[in-house]
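Hey, quick one: can you model this chain's 3D structure?
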Amino acid sequence: MVLDIFLFREAAVVALLFFITHFFIHSLIQKLSLQQPLPLGPKGWPLISAFSLLGTMPHVTLAEMAKKHGPVMYLKIGTCDFVVTSTLDAIQAFLKTLDLNFSNYPPNAGATHLAYNAQDIVFARYG
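Sure thing. Here's the predicted structure for all 127 residues.
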């Protein structure tokens, strides 16, 4: 009985130390990364992020968010990152000016193994 309580306390302390260490390492790596900053956007809840903010009519909610955060905003929904554009100029910048940056799919194992080494019509590289 006493041994069980002792082992439970040790396991709890180890788990707590693991999560604290993971949090600090993750935040340090995030600060040291040399990525360009993403556009501003609404802050959401942990895990579900901005999914709870969208509500039953997401198009209306996104229009209201665009008035507050600007024509280009960043949303994190679950584990996926989204950049939302809401004006014609921003959409043209993405689809006409920066089209080569978005023309290729990122490499994945499914395309490599099932689609002829990612060379079929869907996953082939542009150009």
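One thing worth noting: The mean pLDDT is 82.
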